[in-house]
Design goal:
heterodimer; A: alpha+beta; Cytochrome Bc1 Complex, Chain A, domain 1; six-stranded mixed β-sheet; five-stranded mixed β-sheet; globular; B: alpha/beta; 2 domains; seven-stranded mixed β-sheet
Chain lengths: 505, 488
């Protein structure tokens, strides 16, 4: 009976979209060009104000970090702000020689430091001093932060970058009269990056690790949880890198990583804003065409085998308890990808979600609870994870039991008509809400272009959600949410555990 | 408007063509930067109803959405000290507690089925209702907005739920060192009991009742205490008529008066929160700042950019880039609209370089006297601020939000335009003067959240140290947090 009405809002949505923001209108405003070197440029015209945003997506992330050099993809991301041969140097010919000497000296220092037998401590000290002297010498040629200074001084807004397991992103916004300057700067940094001030920047990154992981109880738990969930696939390794790798890899390693992976074919550059594609594309192309085509690296990764056992990591810290669990699922190209999105929405979106209503509202055992896909990435098979924040007096074990009860409901009973309709309505509204913002739009276009070879998939993703059925949801839930496919991460409060009469077992 | 844009674009296109020769493109400074074409951001329409309610209407037809917000005077700073947390609970349960005709849960179902959002919240000086909905759902959603304004229920079950969540947040407030540093630094700058810095405790939230929330509603929710902003895909005349119909007959009530607030900054010196399970120290140096309506504001903005703003600032250049001591480092003379902001320097560094980092920050502060900020640094910071100025008003929503802010704090509507002129006029001498006026090395309270056993030198080698106790006071009368049984 109710399904008769469910069509109404959906049709309404399509008529709304047809007015202003449907795929056809984006087709008219969006131009894509794949250059001969393999790099893809997307320009989307949105002349609301004289500004534009860009998003450079490099299809390389920490999953490509070499063994023993975890954190290198993220380290290179930091180095991409250090300038080029033409930006950031007082005299590049001399600086180049000085940087080469830093590498020779570092290599000698490292060889002695890592000797397992017969290390000579005096020699090590001398080698360290020689390396540091070389650094001081090379620093004389540096114009520090010149690249960032140009962007900031020219009005760059929100300049930043991020590295995940799957990809590395660079982005900021500029007034629209700086389009050519941007095209020069952005292509330049990926044509001639220079690994200057590398070892000081490495210390900055190590501080970032201390900030996000070592000195943060949830950060520690998440690192242990992911490491336990993946044993074979590179998702096992933290994006920020293990401390000993951070203290070992070199500027040469970072340069090699760039040479190997930052090939034009791995780059999608999306520009959105007050830009006219007919004029802008030839100019942007001219700059990015300078990047030399290079062979595709072998970036095959080990496939995580079926888990086949339940795994649990328990951290005992002086922090309040926390619960997380994850189940392996296929990568984003799976035919069931939209079904996972629907499950995440059903379980987690807002105060009508299953987990909020069960754990927070009704059982009153958690301050928050949700389930989400895409952890720690989506490019490779990854986790569908659930978490809950126990209220004082409630344990992580209670969180697990309550989450499992909700998962069992999804496995055993069809979701309601209202819920299915709500999921589909929200997917469409979320798409619309994301379209009125240059930087958000640039991000989406670049991601869909990189992942599917076609930005239009952004709009088709809503159609895929629209085709999800109740039976799909039950089938996928039954396939995925199995004990032997589960890893659990628990944070136990050390003080409370110790205070229990008889002590923690 | 369209014609102007087209002509300006033509000029832009021509300049672009000129620059295409490859020989020039190797040097960034040779790349032409044509003038930015003229852009007049669309100002919202301002209407004041006879009952004192101020309404801003910002038409924007790009998407089929209608969004809005209502800001009501009175916030955390106005609540009694014995009931800290009252307004936070009020902001949480205003929406979840529902209205006379519907429970909050029924509202959830109704709104989520339409992918609409309607939320309430609280700030230091105000509470807020905000919504976002698809155009055809506006009338339905707006009815709920009006119901929240006129007949909220604050049902007890949602108050209990909010209290549980609040108690949980209190129990977790010492887990993250950055959170501890932010909270304790504010207490040092403003005074521990100051309304801008104080924390809710189990006892103060436990003292809040449903009657308190209703009393708060009765004291503050009057049309003359609120500013309404609506933006999106509507006809402004029709929207104004709808708002008039909904609100114009609402009687004026007593106006909210800003509270008299005293500031009692901590004595200068070193303050330590010892935390054994971290390998990084959070360092904060604070003292009382100033207000945004101060004529020195523009020079302060330029100083802040030059000292601790972007990558070219002194602190990033020295502490992060040159010394590699920190991932995050910054510093500024803080300004707020209607009360003093906080002068705050902050960084995180490994335990073993804590003392070195404090000294490095002091060197950079002292450096302001020995090597005052130069003409070149001032020019760079002014360029940075002025060239990115467009991003203050590059969307109708941003323009609306700015205007509502100025209205709320009684600032002139053209404050942003004045800001541009103000920045342009700042001189090197102004910056040197305000640095000396607002930043006092010997007035700073220095807070370290870290593991003193691993510091490079004892902290008291720098001066006397006050230990800050951050133990969470247990709920009154009751036992401390119930201890959970060991997990199975």
């Amino acid at each position: 009976m109710k399904s008769r009405f469910s069509l109404v809002p959906i049709l309404l949505f399509f008529s709304l979209l047809a007015g202003a923001q449907d795929l056809a209108s984006f087709e008219k405003r969006t131009t894509v060009k794949k250059l001969d070197n393999g790099l893809t440029i997307i320009i989307c015209e949105r002349p609301e104000a004289p500004v534009f945003s860009f998003f450079t997506l490099v299809d390389v992330g920490s999953a490509q970090d070499p063994m023993g050099k975890t954190g290198l993809a993220h380290m290179f991301e930091h180095m991409a702000f250090k300038g080029t041969d033409k930006i950031g140097s007082k005299n590049f010919a001399e600086e180049k020689a000085a940087l080469a000497k830093v590498e020779t000296d570092y290599s000698a220092f490292l060889a002695e430091r890592d000797r397992t037998v017969g290390r000579d401590d005096q020699k090590l000290k001398d080698l360290e001093k020689a390396w540091k002297d070389s650094i001081a010498d090379a620093d004389r040629y540096v114009k520090p932060n010149e690249f960032s200074e140009i962007v900031e001084r020219q009005g760059g807004e929100g300049m930043n970058a991020s590295t995940s397991d799957d990809q590395t992103d660079y982005f900021y916004s500029f007034p629209s009269n700086r389009l050519e300057l941007w095209a020069y700067m952005e292509s330049e940094r990926f044509q001639h990056p220079v690994m200057r001030e590398f070892y000081k920047e490495r210390n900055v990154v190590i501080e970032e690790r201390r900030l996000r992981t070592d000195s943060n109880p949830i950060g520690k738990l998440v690192e242990q949880f992911i490491t336990a969930s993946f044993q074979a696939h590179p998702y096992h390794r933290p994006t920020i890198g293990w401390m000993s790798d951070l203290n070992s890899f070199s500027a040469t390693d970072a340069q090699n990583f760039f040479n190997h992976y930052y090939i034009p074919a791995n780059l999608v550059v999306a520009v959105v804003g007050d830009v006219k594609a007919a004029e802008a594309m030839p100019m942007v192309e001219k700059y990015f065409a300078r990047l030399p085509a290079r062979p595709r690296p072998d970036d095959r990764t080990t496939t995580e085998p079926p888990q086949g056992s339940e795994r649990t990591v328990t951290l005992r810290q002086s922090a309040q308890p926390f619960y997380i669990e994850g189940y392996h699922r296929p990568d984003y190209r799976s035919a069931d990808d939209a079904v996972y999105d629907a499950i995440a929405d059903l379980m987690s979106n807002g105060r009508t979600s299953r987990l909020y209503r069960a754990l927070v509202r009704d059982k009153k055992i958690a301050a928050a609870s949700a389930g989400f896909s895409g952890f720690p990435g989506t490019k490779y098979p990854h986790l569908f994870a659930f978490y809950a924040v126990p209220l004082p007096g409630h344990t992580p074990a209670e969180m697990g039991a309550a989450i499992h009860a909700e998962i069992e409901r999804v496995k055993k009973e069809d979701i309601s008509d209202e819920e299915l309709k709500m999921i589909k309505t929200r997917a469409k509204a979320d798409l619309i809400r994301g379209l009125a913002d240059n930087s958000g739009l640039a991000t989406q276009l670049a991601i869909y272009q990189s992942r599917f070879g076609d930005w239009r998939e952004l709009f088709r993703s809503v159609d895929k959600i629209d085709r999800v059925t109740k039976a799909n949801i039950r089938r996928v839930a039954n396939q995925t949410f199995q004990e032997n496919n589960r890893t659990v991460g628990i944070n136990e409060n050390l003080k409370q555990a110790a205070a229990v009469p008889g002590g923690a077992q | 408007m369209n014609t102007i844009r087209r002509i300006a674009f033509l000029a832009f296109a021509l300049l672009t063509l000129v620059s295409l020769s490859p020989a020039q493109s190797t040097e960034w400074s040779k790349i032409p930067i044509p003038p930015l074409h003229a852009f007049q951001p669309q100002q919202p329409k301002r209407v004041e109803f006879p009952n004192g309610m101020v309404v801003f209407l910002q038409e924007d037809h790009e998407l089929p959405l209608i969004d809005g917000s209502i800001r009501i005077r009175g916030g955390w700073r106005d609540e009694p000290a014995a009931k800290i947390g009252l307004v936070n609970l009020y902001g949480n349960t205003w929406r979840t507690g529902g209205v006379k005709s519907q429970t909050g849960d029924q509202m959830d179902d109704f709104l989520e089925a339409r992918a609409a959002k309607l939320e309430t919240g609280s700030l230091t000086d105000s509470t807020e209702i905000s919504w976002s909905c698809l155009k055809p759902d506006f009338d339905d959603v707006f009815k709920l907005v009006v119901a929240l304004l006129r007949e909220p229920e604050f049902r007890q079950d949602k108050i209990d739920l909010a209290l549980d969540e609040y108690a949980d947040a209190i129990s977790r407030r010492n887990d993250d060192p950055g959170q501890i540093a932010g909270r304790e630094a504010a207490k040092l700058a403003y005074g521990a009991a100051n309304p801008y810095a104080r924390s809710a405790e189990y006892a103060t939230i436990g003292a809040v009742t449903r009657e308190d929330l209703l009393a708060w509603y009765k004291s503050y929710v009057h049309p003359n205490n609120m500013i309404v902003g609506v933006s999106g895909d509507f006809d402004p005349t029709a929207m104004e008529a709808k708002l008039r119909q909904a609100f114009a007959s609402w009687q004026k009530g007593p106006g909210a008066k800003p509270p008299a607030i005293e500031f009692q900054p901590a004595k200068p010196g070193y303050y330590l929160v010892a935390k054994g399970d971290v390998n990084q120290s959070n360092i904060r140096m604070v003292e009382l700042g100033t207000r945004r309506d101060n004529p020195d504001y523009y020079a302060i903005e330029v100083f802040n950019d030059a000292m601790g703003g972007g990558f070219s600032s002194r602190l990033i250049q020295d502490i992060r880039t040159k010394r590699g001591l920190a991932y995050s480092v910054g510093g500024s003379i803080g300004t707020s609209f209607d009360h003093p902001g906080v002068v705050r320097f902050s960084m995180g560094t490994k335990s073993q370089s804590t003392i070195e980092s404090i000294q490095a920050l002091f060197e950079d502060i002292d450096g302001l006297q020995k090597n005052p900020i130069t003409d070149e640094e001032i020019a760079r910071s002014k360029d940075t601020i002025l060239n990115s100025f467009i991003f203050n008003f590059d969307s109708p929503d941003k323009v609306l939000a700015e205007r509502m802010n100025y209205e709320f704090y009684g600032y002139p509507a053209d404050f942003l335009e004045k800001y541009r002129t103000g920045i342009e006029k700042v001189t090197t001498a102004d910056v040197a003067r305000i640095a000396a006026k607002y930043l006092h090395r010997d007035q700073l309270a220095v807070l370290i959240v870290g593991n003193p056993a691993e510091f490079d030198k004892p902290l008291d080698s720098l001066g006397p140290v006050t230990r800050v106790d951050i133990t969470i006071p247990p709920p009154p009368g009751g036992k401390p947090q119930e201890v959970p049984p060991p997990p199975q």
